Amino acid sequence: MALIWLHLITALAAIGLGLVSLLLAKGTQLHQLMGRVWMGLMLCATLSSFLIHRVHPPGGWSWLHGLALWT
To answer: What is the 3-state secondary structure (H, E, C) of the chain?
Structure first.
């Protein structure tokens, strides 16, 4: 269950941070920092999604895992 929370929190944080960074002037140091943090959050959300496969019966993969591969 902790993996689901990790996935949820990092994904929601990435969405929020992505929206805020789109409003900032492109190329500033703050914009670049937020972009790097966003990449880390997305990496964590994507990698954690591959560990959640036990939720789907009988422990298989879903179409969402294919989406995670694309991400």
So the answer is: CHHHHHHHHHHHHHHHHHHHHHHCCCCCHHHHHHHHHHHHHHHHHHHHHCCCHHHCCCCCCCHHHHHHHHC
> Residue 26 and residue 32: Cα distance in Å, rounded?
8
Please report, for the chain, the start and end positions of each structural domain, with discontinuous segments joined by +: 2-70
Q: What tokens appear for 70 in the block? A: 């694309």
Pull the structure tokens for residue 15.
């969405």
Q: What is the pLDDT of residues 9-55, one digit of tens each?
A: 999 999 999 999 999 899 999 999 999 999 999 999 988 888 876 65
Helix axes 63-70, 29-49, angle to 10 degrees: 150
